[in-house]
Amino acid sequence: MNYTKNTKMSKYAALRSVMKHFVAIEQEEGVGAHVRRSIGSMNMRRFPPFLMLDDFTLKPPAGFPDHPHHGQETITYTLEGMIAHEDFTGSKGVLHPGDLQFMTAGRGIVHSEIPVALENGGYTNGLQLWVDLPSKSKDCEPRYRNLRRDETPEVKVNNDLKVRVISGKSYGVNSLTELAYTPINFYHFITGKKGTEFLQEFPENFNVFLYIMKGSVILNDEVFSKHCAIFFNNDGTAVSGASAADNTEFVLVGGEILDQEVVQHGPFVETSRERMMAVFKNYQYGMNGFEKAHSWSSTIARGVSEKEVKDFDN
Q: Which residue numbers delimit the Pirin C-terminal domain (predicted)?
């Protein structure tokens, strides 16, 4: 989609200042997977409503085999390669480059995420974001929403700036709606030349961060490099800056700040210790949403080849 209208974002929006920044360090996670964790690390334990952000790199046999979730949503964005998923509700499929998956764990789910064995021997790379669920939705039924690349509008702001509008509104272009229970704005900025300026507005009650996948970004005369996560103060209505290198790519993400306690134990997220103990019991005894937790096992644990993708995908 080309952006040809003369509509511009407000020139008078108050710009948010940088609260904290750091380079995400690579670590091993799952079974042989390599991730760069920013949110969910010692540097930034939580950034409500966000619980975790991983920049993952996978190649079989590495992956994230059968594991549970409760009380949160995950957003998986595949940048390179392909990743297969399957869960105990019977849902399964494959995310291709540019595809996303919004998974709501709700009261309970067990699923598996395994990279497709590519014929060229390449890796699968992407981002996974964990988002807290509002307390009223903690026990909702699990659901999936796959968002294919061609379902995501892309606005060409100028010859050197494109934005994939995954969730929200950017430069006059709206995304699909009702992707997640917690309101999220999610944008992928792609710049060509060094010095390309950008501006993105956010609601005042949103926490906002930026993560750089390629190149570098300049904000308030400070340059931030690849794999840097930048967190903003809640003191404005927009984020503005410029690319500091050619061919820079980054995501700019905001989410509504939830007014609730966060009690987290790995992939289980609740609002009190008492509720968390109940979740442990549900999972241990296979009840209240976890009835299939101990009898089900994924078929993709053995791996998925690129040749099998057409039959596996649905």
A: 193-288
Distance between CA atoms of 76 and 69, rounded to whole angstroms?
14
Query: Radius of gyration (Cα) for the chain, nearest Å?
Result: 19
Q: Is 111 annotated as a binding residue?
A: yes
Contact (Cβ atoms closer than 8 angstroms) between residue 219 and residue 241:
yes
- Ligand-binding annotation for 85, yes or no, is no
pLDDT tens digits, 74-93? 999 999 999 999 999 988 89
Which of 82, 141, 91, 137 is CA-nearest to residue 111?
Answer: 91
CA distance 302 to 314: 19
Split into its structural domains, the chain has a count of: 1
- In this prediction, residue 8 has a pLDDT band, given cuts at 50, 70 and 90, of low
| 197 carries a ligand binding annotation | no
Q: Which two tokens stand for residue 40?
A: 């969910």
Spatial neighbors of 222 by CB under 8 A, at least 6 apart, are: 18
CA angle centred on 294, ends 288 and 298, rounded to 5°: 115
Q: Domain range for residue 145?
A: 19-260
Q: Is 113 annotated as a binding residue?
A: yes
For 240, the token pair is: 């503005």
Would you say residue 215 lies in a domain? Answer: yes
